[in-house]
Amino acid sequence: MSVLKIYSEKDISSFLRKRKGETKFGEKINFVKTLEDLKNHSAKYVLFGIPEDIGVRANYGIPGTSKAWEAALGSLLNIQHNHLTNAENVILLGEIDCETQMKQADNISKQEPHAVEKLGELVTQIDHKVSEVVKKVIEAGKFPIIIGGGHNNSFGNLKGTSEALKKPINCINFDAHTDFRALEHRHSGNGFSYAFEGEFLDKYFIFGLHRNYTSEAVFNSIEKNSERVKFNLFEDISVKQKQSFSEAMQEAENFCCNENFGIELDMDAIEMMGSSAITPSGFTLTEARKFIHYFSKNKNARYLHICEGSPTAAIFPNQVGKAIGYLVSDIVAH
Ligand SMILES: N=CN[C@@H](CCC(=O)O)C(=O)O
Fold first, then answer.
1. Which residues form a coiled coil (predicted)?
2. Which of 5, 99, 124, 246 has the fewest CB atoms within 10 Å, counting from its CB?
3. ipTM of the complex
């Protein structure tokens, strides 16, 4: 089973729009030939994509997240290389090989019996690949920046990081949804509940949860695990203004950032952002950027996952890749 397609300069040449007198980010980014080479490289950040939308389909959602990675590359590789953007500190690893699973998913008709369970089995196969790659990147002492894909991939990120560090890790999730749904077949709505059950996830904070899209059953499950699972509501931060954005970030930081933690950012929390569950009411992209900037500076941060972006769902499709470019540069730039 092919796990990872490792990129070389040749693989990205069609994305690069070179211009005389300027140097683009993609002209200064680094490559490796094998995962083993990561250990000997001085760059801190390891960027890779997960071009799949099987988890979203298995969660009764609209396909399209498989296109976010190429959109991200198209934007990120063409931002300027200058003394601030710091491309030298990034290794462009490549992409999780989702080709076989994506082809098999296309052959599963929505109407056939057990369609979502069959999609869930494919999600499990991708989980293995993601966790294996994340584990190796963390073991090499690097900081993975992962571009999804659906939020199902939170499971592989948490499992891989936890296995590399040999203990469960915490997580902060910027999201309209908990993705703490029932432990049925695997899909984009239960990555965190599966990681919690598997003891890869210790403390979990959902930042800016939308009350309208959280079932009473999920609220009850959070209540039952209140020592380890906590949230604040988008409505309390941005509508009722009970707490400021900064206070909300501090609340999350106090809960889960004193130990190793992962940063998850679901693009469906950003208002009108092209995503599988696009929302007319949510945080601004600038607030998402503040969130990434704030949490990535914490010494216990171990990875960043930006997911659920879907260019085809967007009113302005080319803005999805550009938004991801901003979010990635917020962690990498000086
Ligand atoms: N990762 C997204 N999970 C959401 C999807 C919501 C939607 O498609 O409307 C969830 O399961 O609630």
1. none
2. 246
3. 0.96
